[in-house]
Amino acid sequence: MKNIISKVILGSFVVGAVGMASAQKIDAKAKKILDDITANYNSKKNSYFKFSFGSGLNDQVTKTEPGIYYSAGDKYKLKIMDTEQIFDGNKIYNISTDDMEVTIAKPNGNSTLFSPINYLSTYRNDYNVTYNGKKMVNGVNADFIKLTPVKSNGIKYVYLFVDSVKKQMVKLEQHGNNKDVAVIAIKEYKENQDLDPNMFVFDKNKFKNYVITEL
User: Fold this and answer.
1) How confident is the model at residue 117 (pLDDT cuts 50, 70, 90)?
2) Is residue 84 within a helix (H) or strand (E), and if so which, with residue range?
3) Which of 77, 99, 107, 164 is deepest in the core (most CB within 10 A)?
4) Distances from the Cα of 118 to the Cα of 49, 111, 158, angstroms
């Protein structure tokens, strides 16, 4: 479980930047739903949610762990188990408490940072989008939207389950070509909170005994 979580976090849900918008097929109903949710998120000063992170093989989730996520603009903080990731708007800090290691890197143009929000934006260039009707998810009669890569990027498809009334994500499933699966099921939302001004700041002084590697 730890290896899978590390792979997902350190990879930041990496997907290839494929472009080729002319080859896309985007369902109009799905597009409106995704655009409405994106606008709702972007209108908030900050957002917070608790979630469960599930992972497994052969498209079956076998392990789940709780996680928390804070975001404000393009900055965020994510924590799953003993692994934490901070993006301060410039660099990504991957912190492993168990290994006492910190890896620092700048995001590159071929990656998408961890966040359901990024799927709401990258779909415009990278995915074919279809509306698959309604499905009950965690007690919500959610709209079911399927994203399929325009060009091979290691992902077979992504399922988004959306509460269109509240304009919020309910669940995200990422299925890989190798049959790996990663699932984020969102449990609790909070918005426009008074956050610590240092929420998205990495303080080296707190990690003096850690091995810090800057890529």
Assistant:
1) low
2) strand 83-87
3) 77
4) 16, 10, 12
**147-170, pLDDT tens digit by residue?**
998 888 788 898 999 999 999 989
Q: What average pLDDT is seen over the chain?
A: 82
23 three-state secondary structure: helix
Edge-first strand order for the sheet with 60-72 is 127-137, 140-149, 155-163, 168-176, 181-191, 47-57, 60-72, 75-80, 83-87, 92-96, 101-105, 211-214
Whether pTM > 0.85 for this model: the answer is no
Q: How far is CA 134 from CA 131, 143, 149, 154, 161, in A?
A: 9, 5, 22, 27, 9
Average pLDDT over residues 32-54: 90
Mean pLDDT of 14-43: 73
Quick one: angle between helices 116-126 and 28-42, nearest 10?
Answer: 140
Q: Burial, 26: exposed, middle or buried (Cβ in 10 Å; 0-12, 13-18, 19+)?
A: middle
Kindly report the backbone phi and psi dihedral angles of residue 65, in degrees, each rounded to the nearest multiple of 5, phi listed first: -140, 150
Q: How confident is the model at residue 17, as a pLDDT?
A: 37
Q: Which two tokens stand for residue 148?
A: 């399929």
| Distance separating alpha carbons of residues 15 and 100, to the nearest angstrom | 27
